[in-house]
Amino acid sequence: MRVLLVGLGTRYNHVNLAVRTIAAYVNAYLTPEELGCCSVSYAEWPVSTPLLDLLSAISRYEPDAVLFSVYIWNRTAALDAAAELPKIVPGVIIGVGGPEVSYCAESLLPLHRSVDFVMSGEGENTVLDVCRLLVRCKASRMRSDLRRSFLEALVKQPVIGTFFRSESGVVSGGERSVIGDLALIPFPYRSADGSLSADVDPDHRIIYYESSRGCPFRCSYCLSSIDKSVRFAPLERVFADLQFFLDAGCRLVKFTDRTFNLDEQRYLAIWQYIIDHHNGKTVFHFEIAAQHLSDAALRLLRLVPDGAMQFEIGIQSIHPETLAQAGRPCDPERLAAVIRRIPRQIHVHLDLIAGLPYENFAQFSRSFDYTAALKPDMIQLGFLKILSGTAMETFAKRQPGYEWLSSAPYEVLSTPDMPYADLLRLKNIERLTDSYYNSGSYSYTVAYLAERRVSLFAFFTELADHFENRGLFGGLHKSTDEAAFLFDFCTGDAACLSALDRTVLSELLRFDFIRREKAGSFPSWYRRRYDKAAHNEAVRRHTEIASTRETFAATDYEEFLIHPETYEPVPGGFRVLFVYPPRGGRSEIRLKTEASSVKDRRVRWIAVSEP
Q1: Which residues contact 78 (CB under 8 A, 6 or more apart)?
Q2: For the segment 117-146, what is each residue's pLDDT rounded down to a tens digit?
Q3: Do 32 and 69 touch, CB atoms closer than 8 A?
Q4: Are residues 83 and 142 located together in one domain of the fold?
Q5: CB contact at 8 A, 429 and 462
Q6: Residue 253 and residue 207 in contact, taking contact as beta carbons nearer than 8 Å
Q7: How many CB atoms lie within 10 A of CB 79?
Q8: 93-97 and 2-9 as β-strands: parallel, antiparallel, unpaired?
Q9: Are residues 146 and 235 in the same domain?
Q10: Are residues 131 and 198 in the same domain?
């Protein structure tokens, strides 16, 4: 008998933690006799997999039962597959679990007749008991007999944590208690020989890891607020798991802990372990509440190796009434002061949510500019999702003016303070923020706007209107097109920019364009000031030439009217040698001269002439 756990990820490189953890747990706690007649495995596909391809792939496992892990991003795909699977795998038993179905089983089961049961809450022990019930019901090799036997047994011997149909309607098997000791859950990434699971490419897949479960906070829009119990894995276990990732050379490990920095002694110990044992490659991602970082934590962070850690911090809004209704009161001044003290070697993502209560377009602009002033590496602009079972859903239903999508992702369409038209404008601003801020491709241009106290929100709002009026939002654009659009805007008649701003920005856009990568050709807007002889002399003076051809292929030379970091005019021109990272089998160019900018992660550049 085969039980298959199915995970559908947003992208191919996202590892599904849930199906791996549950499979590891069930295989660890089934008895040898039970394992002899019940095989439990997992499989993952991108949510974008065509339905027919997904059905074909699942059917190859010849499963007797398929359990789907359902989230907001894969609900439609999972339920579509569940509806069609019995047509090609007759008699298959289908269960669904996960945050997207845990709180709506009573409404889901009548609408989706192919789903035999819903699992609510943590899945490890519920799936374990489902498998044990399947073992007891396996009186025949015929799959159709197994399904009938299982459904009859489920009514007579309800599995705690499940919802299922009976003659009287949808029935609950009772609420499942959470796992109190996380040490009981096996590590899900280790193969039988002790190495990293073969299906996890350490260089290209994002690994998710949990060192705690639950959240003590009461954010009204979040499902994590429903489970307020917080449980921690033992530190020694966490250290061993971290070392496993480090030894395997994993590129990115994201902690799924809802708020990582709850217990100071514990989280400082984990950060100290990373500092002491870092391999120079692995990045650890944490979601933190920055306002709770102590002086001791901030001192420790100064010791973190460059690029070893990144933080995701929820700003959401800076308006007291909004934050109070959202269930996350915070002092913006205290929060800003702490974020500014986070060392620059730690990559920082700051989150905002549009559509929260009592925040209109103008107020949101102030939240955006507050966030931009903190100079994060990324500004993540999200939109409120009104999820079933949350306090936000209760609030929105009582307030006239709230509209949101009836199906996943349940995104807000309008609020009493933010009409649909304003949310559409913010959607455009979000796209431009991703392209021109979060990409890092225009960091010198953006840094100037911050330095000159230009409202970044006003800039992106006017840029969005510029795009909208010229029909530039339709379709995909190459990076060279994006640069041309921005150059056209910055050198035009944008109301948020002065004549001096336009002059400086035109030079900074040239600098940002050439520093991104070695250009095969230059677009029409780019005014080239190249001197081949000066390039040759700069290469000779500042690099150790192993191969002239390779050295020239990995470098470029340009002159600018201003210094890209001080924005001051440079008489005679600011001359720069750009040295690009190795690619296509080329070795890294060795420098004789220390690079002028060591913080630019895209390219090393050397000021050939200082002002």
Answers
A1: 6, 8, 68, 69, 70, 96
A2: 999 999 999 999 999 999 999 855 556 689
A3: no
A4: yes
A5: no
A6: yes
A7: 22
A8: unpaired
A9: no
A10: no
Is 317 within the bounds of a domain? yes
The answer on 166 and 192 residing in a single domain is no
- Please state, in angstroms and as integers, the Cα–Cα distance from residue 154 to each residue in 95, 163, 366, 454, following that order: 12, 10, 55, 64
Phi, psi angles (nearest 5°) of residue 601: -80, -10
**Could you tell me if residue 397 is inside a domain?**
no
Nearest-angstrom CA–CA distance, 212 and 225: 15
User: Three-state SS for 327?
Assistant: coil
Task: Write out pLDDT tens, residues 388-420.
Answer: 888 899 999 999 999 999 988 999 999 999 999
Task: State yes or no: pLDDT of 219 exceeds 90.
Answer: no
CA dihedral 152, 40, 244, 216 (to 10 degrees): -10
Query: Is 158 in the same domain as 243?
Result: no
The predicted pLDDT at position 610 comes to 45
For the residues 467-490, what does the mean pLDDT come to? 87
**Structural domain includes residue 405:** no
CB atoms within 10 A of CB 174: 12
Supply the range of the domain harboring residue 373.
186-384
> What is residue 329's predicted lDDT score, i.e. its pLDDT?
86
Residue 99 near residue 71, CB atoms below 8 Å: yes
Same domain, 54 and 122: yes
pLDDT for res 13 = 85
User: Whole-model pTM above 0.85?
Assistant: yes
Q: How confident is the model at residue 609 (pLDDT cuts 50, 70, 90)?
A: low
**Which of 362, 384, 406 is the endpoint of a domain?**
384
Report the alpha-carbon distance of residue 600 to residue 355 in Å, rounded.
35
